[in-house]
């Protein structure tokens, strides 16, 4: 039994779907269902008894304690977080609450549970904390890529809250011996990503005939990783990572934002041509994000050499798959953006009931 937090979000739902597709082990999915959590992502598991959904907050100590005692997981995979940098700039409070206080509460309950375990159950237990490359700050054009020993220098409230959570996880290992693992990953993209993030937002706006907003000069660089590759990396780290260690995960795929947007336009021009002109005609430069990090890049050597992990998708293959997925699932985007999805959750959660 695994306990996954944030399993109704973008990466968490891809993780649950792909893990259950290849393993027999059950998964308890603890998710608060914020605006970013969507149970429809997991519709394929609606009659699969191995997926047990539990609606709740990672900061709810009583609920987490009860879930741990009842389901007795062998590992926690902690995805739950507020994840959008722009939202953290508008309102950092939820980020501080969930990412820092929530992770702190979760660690306390997990430590108490782990203390009750004995023998192999205790030594084999793992707490895998899913974090971000943004904790390392911003790189200049010729700086070496982030490695696991790069000093933390978070710049946005989101990055600072994730950095704080990483430090708590580190401290729980060093102080209490909790068998933790931390992964710091670059920008993910793929199915089920909420269209507030660059790639799904551009696909959605392009098809809706709306502006494609590029912040500042569009020359900021991100390293892109297809979400299912992130999921294989997380499973590999969970299986073979050294306790107490951190692992960077990257796609080896640095791209300027403007090039990402133009590539999406070119794929759409081919797959769903506009009546006239190119989707690139919709590109609009807008005011930059305050404190916008210029460049991220990942040195993934540790994960590659120590655990033998490699990404399967290139940016080109992954992006084509992603655009195809959004073209084939217009109702998903419509629901999450129109608010119909929120209504669906409220009315149907009562019908489903808690696990
Ligand atoms: P997301 O915003 O799509 O999903 C977050 C999920 O967590 C949602 O289902 C939400 O309902 C849930 N959640 C939020 N607050 C909660 C709380 N207090 N209790 C329980 N559940 C709560 O995020 P994502 O993009 O899937 O990211 C998942 C994790 O991976 C995050 O920790 C993020 O920092 C990290 N990460 C993301 C990326 C990326 O590119 N998206 C890259 C590296 C790391
Ligand atoms: O690096 C990992 C991080 O990647 C994760 O930890 C975060 O959870 C995830 O949201 C992502 O953060 P970014 O800020 O890099 O992602 P976002 O999709 O918001 O933006 C990607 C880049 O595109 C960034 O430089 C800002 C720019 N951008 C974004 C949006 C939404 C635009 O130019 N226009 C936009 O409309």
What hetero molecules are bound to the protein chains? Answer: nicotinamide-adenine-dinucleotide, 2'deoxy-thymidine-5'-diphospho-alpha-D-glucose
Report, as a whole number of angstroms, the end-to-end distance. Answer: 15 Å
**Major β-sheet profile:** 7 strands, parallel
Name the shape in a single word.
globular
Helix coverage percent of residues?
40-55%
Task: Give the overall pLDDT as a whole number.
Answer: 95
Q: By helix and strand content, what is the structural category? A: alpha/beta
Q: Which ranges are low-confidence, i.e. pLDDT below 50, for 5 or more consecutive residues?
A: none
* Tally of helical segments: 13
How much of the residues is beta strand, in percent? 15-25%
Helix and strand run: EHEEHEHHHEHEEHEEHEEHEHHHH
Widest β-sheet, arrangement of strands: 3-2-1-4-5-6-10
> Cα-atom Rg, whole angstroms?
20 Å
Number of DSSP-assigned strands: 12
Topology:
Blueprint: E1 2-5, H1 10-22, E2 27-31, E3 51-55, H2 61-71, E4 75-78, H3 85-90, H4 93-116, H5 119-124, E5 126-132, H6 157-176, E6 180-185, E7 187-189, H7 198-207, E8 212-215, E9 221-226, H8 227-240, E10 246-249, E11 254-256, H9 257-271, E12 283-286, H10 301-307, H11 315-328, H12 330-338, H13 340-352
The structure holds nicotinamide-adenine-dinucleotide and 2'deoxy-thymidine-5'-diphospho-alpha-D-glucose.
Structure description:
By secondary structure, the chain is of the alpha/beta class. It is 46% helix and 15% strand. The strands form 3 sheets. It has a 7-stranded parallel beta sheet, sandwiched between helices. A 3-stranded mixed beta sheet has the order 7-9-11. A two-stranded parallel sheet has the order 8-12. Helix 2 packs parallel to helix 4, helix 4 packs parallel to helix 6 and helix 9 packs across helix 11. Nicotinamide-adenine-dinucleotide (NAD) binds next to helix 1, helix 4, strand 5 and strand 7. 2'deoxy-thymidine-5'-diphospho-alpha-D-glucose binds next to helix 7 and strand 8.
């Amino acid at each position: 039994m695994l306990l996954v937090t944030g399993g109704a979000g973008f990466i968490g739902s891809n993780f649950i779907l792909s893990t259950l597709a290849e393993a027999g082990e059950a998964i308890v999915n603890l998710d608060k269902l914020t605006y970013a959590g969507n149970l429809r992502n997991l519709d394929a598991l609606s009659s699969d008894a191995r997926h047990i959904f539990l609606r709740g907050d990672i900061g709810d100590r009583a609920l987490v304690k009860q879930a741990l005692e009842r389901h007795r997981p062998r590992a926690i995979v902690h995805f739950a977080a507020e994840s959008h940098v722009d939202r953290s700039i508008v309102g950092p409070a939820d980020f501080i609450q969930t990412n820092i206080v929530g992770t702190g509460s979760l660690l306390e309950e997990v430590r108490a549970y782990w203390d009750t375990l004995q023998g192999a159950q205790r030594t084999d237990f793992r707490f895998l904390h899913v974090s971000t490359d943004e904790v390392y700050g911003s790189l200049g054009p010729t700086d070496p890529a982030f490695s696991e020993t790069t000093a933390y220098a978070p710049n946005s409230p989101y990055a600072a809250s994730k950095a704080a959570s990483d430090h708590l996880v580190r401290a729980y290992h060093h102080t209490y011996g909790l068998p933790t693992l931390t992964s710091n990953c670059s920008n993910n993209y793929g199915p089920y990503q909420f269209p507030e993030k660059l790639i799904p937002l551009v696909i959605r706006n392009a098809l809706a005939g709306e502006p494609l907003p590029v912040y500042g000069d569009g020359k900021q660089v991100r390293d892109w990783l297809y979400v299912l590759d992130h999921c294989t990396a997380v499973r590999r780290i969970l299986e073979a990572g050294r306790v107490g260690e951190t692992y960077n995960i990257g796609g080896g795929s640095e791209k300027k934002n403007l090039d990402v947007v133009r590539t999406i336009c070119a794929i759409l021009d081919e797959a769903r041509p506009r009546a006239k002109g190119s989707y690139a005609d919709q590109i609009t430069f807008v005011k930059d994000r305050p404190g916008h990090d210029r460049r991220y890049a990942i040195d993934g050597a540790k994960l590659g050499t120590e655990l033998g992990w490699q990404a399967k998708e290139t940016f080109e293959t992954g992006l084509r798959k992603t655009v195809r997925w959004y073209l084939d699932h217009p109702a998903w985007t419509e629901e999450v953006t129109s608010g119909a999805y929120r209504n669906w959750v409220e009315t149907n959660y009562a019908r489903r009931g808690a696990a």
